[in-house]
Amino acid sequence: MSEELIKAESNLSKLAFENLQKWLLDEKYHEFKAQILNLIKNENWDELEDSFFKILEFGTAGRRGKVGAGSNRINLVTISESAQALANYLKSLDINSPSIAIAWDVRNSSCELSKKCAEILAANNIEVFYFDTPRSTPELSFTVRNLKTSAGIVISASHNPPEDNGIKIYWNDGAQISAPHDKKLMKIAKNIEEFKTGNFDEFVKNGKIKILGEENDYSYIKANAKLSLSKNRNVKIIFSPIHGTGTTNLLKTLQFVGFENIIIVDEQINFDGNFSTLQDRKPNPENLSANRMVILKLRKEQADIALTTDPDADRICVMSLEKNGEVRSFSGNQTAILVTDYILSKKQKDRNKYAELYFGNRDFICKSFVTTDMLNVLAKKYGVKIYDDLLVGFKFIGKKISQKETLGEKFIAGFEESLGGLIGSQTRDKDAATIGLMIAELASELKLKNQTLGERLDEIYAENGYFVEKTESLEFSGAEGFVKMQEIMQKMRIGNKNFGALKMRDFENLTELDFSTNKKNSFKMLENGNAVSFIFDSEDRRITIRPSGTEPKMKIYAQWRFENKQDCVKIENILSDFKERILNEC
C-alpha cells in the first residue's frame, strides 16, 4: 500500500477509504488521481470524507451534488455511469429502437456533461435527440412525450449554488423516474465497470445524435398557449430568469399568447452559470436575495406583478405591487391557492367553454403532503378530486397523473410548496411557464376590477379559512452532517418524543402512532419515504420533518389552520419552538 493510501486509511471512515482506494487504483478514474493525491498531501480530510463516504444517490430529483472528484460528486465518471446504466436498463427491457432526449441548463459544466451522456448513449445504439443550447427542464419533459422517446435526461442542479450540478432522468411518460425504475437504475449504476463512448461530432454526422431546435420549441410553447383561459392582456410584468433558461419557456409563452408589456431585468437575462449578479450566488427564487433586482425594477416601473424563475425554469416566484406601495412576495403555497382558485372558478362559471381544455367528469388535482391544505378545501368547494398521498418530489405527482389518466381521469393541476406547479398534462414535471401564464391572466382580470393579487388571496382566506404554512431548514453539511440527519430521523421514529402532539406519522414505515393509546395503525401513500409528521390538536395542524433530497439540510414544514387572521403570526413561534426542541432533544 502506498504512503498516500496508508495516510488516508488512518484518517477516513472505512467506506470513504474503500471508495477512495478504488478511485486511485482503477484506470477508469485516472484523470482525477492528481487531484485526489493533492487533497491527501494537504491533509484535507473533511473534503475527502465528504467526497467518498458514499456513492451519490438518486434523491427527490435525480443525482445532484457538488462538482468534483469522488464517488459522492458530480463528474464525468459519475455522469457516465448514470448514462451507461440507463442504456443497460433500456436494453434489459427489450425496447425496440430505444431513443432518449437530452437537455441541459446554464451551469458551467452542463454542456460538457450532457455531451458525454449523448456520446455514451449513441455508442450504445440509442437514438439521441439533443438540445445544443440551454433549455428548461419542463421542455425536456414535454419533448419526451412529444417525440415518444424511451427516456429523457436533463443536466441541471436546479436552484442549487454554482458549484453543484446533477442529472435527472425521465421515463417515457415524461415524468421523472420513480419506483421501481429508480432503484433498479441505481443498482446498475453502482456496478458499472466500463462505459462505451465515441465522438459527439461524428455521431451527429452519422445521424445517431439529432439536434433539436426551434421546431421543437414551437411545439412546446404552442402546447402551453392552449391552456390560456382569458384574452385580457392589460397587465404590466417585470421578469427575470436569474441568468437561467426562463427566457426559453416562460417569456416565450407569455409573448406567444400576446402579453406585450413585459419589462426584463437586462442584467440577468444572459446565461451565466456563476449567477454573477447575486451576492450569495444562490439562484433560488424562494430567497429574497435572488429577487432583489426584480423587486427594485417592480417598484421603479410601477408594474403590476413580477415573475422570476430558477436556472432550469421549473420553479417560479410571483410578486405583486400592492396598493400601499409594498411588494408582496407569494410563497409556493400561496401561488398554488391563487392559481387553483382561478382555474376552478373558471370551470364553475363556464363549464362548456373550458371543457375541452381541462375538464371531464373525473377531474383531479394533486399536491404533495406538505403543500397547503387550502387546496383540499378548494377541491371540495369546486367539486373536483384531490390526491394528496404524495411525498415531496414532483416525480410522484407525475406518477399519479399517469396512473389516474390511464383510468380515464383528467388532470387539472399539481403543486408543491417549494414554488413548483404544473397546469395540464402536456408536461409531467413542474413548469414555470404554465403557472406564470395563469398568474399573468389572473392579474389581468383582477386589474379590470381594480384588485391586486394580494387582495384576491386575502379574499380566498376570508372565504375558506386561514391556512398558514412556513418552512425552515437545518443545515448539516458533509459526511458528519449526513450521519446526524439519519440519527435525528431515527430518534423521531422511535416515538418517545411527542413534542406535545397527539399523533406521529412515519412515512417510511407507513404507520401512525397515537400517543394517547400507544397504538399504531397503518396508512396509505403512493410510495413510502423518509419523513415524519406530528399531528397536534387536529389534522390541519401538523409539523413535518424530512431530509432534503437535493441539498445537505433537513426541512421542517409547519402547516396550521387558524381561526382568524390575527392569529396567523403565531406560526413563527410554533415553528421556532419545534426547531429548538429538535436541536436540544435530538
Structure report:
There is one protein chain. By secondary structure, the protein is an alpha/beta fold. Among the domains are: about 55-210, 3-Layer(aba) Sandwich (Alpha-D-Glucose-1,6-Bisphosphate, Chain A, domain 3), CATH 3.40.120.10; about 465-585, TATA-Binding Protein (2-Layer Sandwich). About 40% of the residues lie in helices and about 20% in strands. It has a seven-stranded antiparallel beta sheet with strand order 16-22-21-20-17-18-19. Strand 4 (about 150-155) and strand 5 (about 165-170) form a beta hairpin. Helix 5 runs parallel beside helix 6 (about 110-125), helix 13 (about 330-350) crosses helix 17 (about 430-450) and helix 13 crosses helix 18 (about 455-465). The longest helix has 18 residues, at about 330-350. The protein is globular, with a radius of gyration of 24 Å.
* Uncertain spans: none
Structural class: alpha/beta
Shape: globular
Largest sheet: 7 strands, antiparallel
